[in-house]
Amino acid sequence: MSESLLQQQLVKASSLLNQGEVIAYPTEAVYGLGCDPFNQQAVEKLFHVKQRPMEKGVILVAASVEQIQDWIELIGTEWEKNVLDSWPGPITWVLPIKKPMPDWITGGRDTVAIRVSDHPVVQQLCLVFGGPIVSTSANVTTHPPAKSCDEVRTEFEDKVYCICAELGGLDKPTQIRDAKTGRVLR
């Protein structure tokens, strides 16, 4: 795919995110559904499309630590090195929040799940959008995750815009770890 076609898709996707829409995009292993995490209607729309309960909260994905550092307890903590050594990369960390975040992001917890991705499309998307976005697998709950835009369209018809690009090299969704304990959660 040409770089200009990808840029056009990223600009369109960012515009849709700013309008409160849900998009699909390639991640490290599967296609993800995303939206603006701070737009409650957008997150509700994502949960409706996915048929998932709001109480679960969501994973956020970012292009850099700078995009999320104001929200999380990381710098100066005992887990800082473990987290920063793995980012950007395919590990999602559950981190304590340092200022209140909406319950629809955290599921009412005092932690948030965040990944600073090394997937080039995810990074570019977060940069064009100007911040982190929601990252949840592109599937109706209990269905297998989509691995292409064709599968996204089959699953969601025309309910979400899909960025057509390559998946990363993983064969299963990214690992989730608790930053305080190092415990693998997924």
TrEMBL record:
Domain YrdC-like: 7-186
PROSITE patterns attached to this UniProt entry: YRDC (PS51163)
Molecular function GO terms recorded: L-threonylcarbamoyladenylate synthase
Enzyme class per UniProt: transferase
Cell compartment(s), UniProt: Cytoplasm
Gene3D superfamilies with a match to the protein in the record: DHBP synthase (3.90.870.10)
Known EC number: 2.7.7.87
Main localization (coarse): cytoplasm
Pfam families, per database record: Sua5_yciO_yrdC
Domain of life: Bacteria
Family to which this protein belongs: Belongs to the SUA5 family. TsaC subfamily.
NCBIfam families in the record: L-threonylcarbamoyladenylate synthase
Role noted for this protein: Required for the formation of a threonylcarbamoyl group on adenosine at position 37 (t(6)A37) in tRNAs that read codons beginning with adenine. Catalyzes the conversion of L-threonine, HCO(3)(-)/CO(2) and ATP to give threonylcarbamoyl-AMP (TC-AMP) as the acyladenylate intermediate, with the release of diphosphate.
Name the UniProt record assigns to this protein: Threonylcarbamoyl-AMP synthase
Organism field: Thiomicrorhabdus lithotrophica
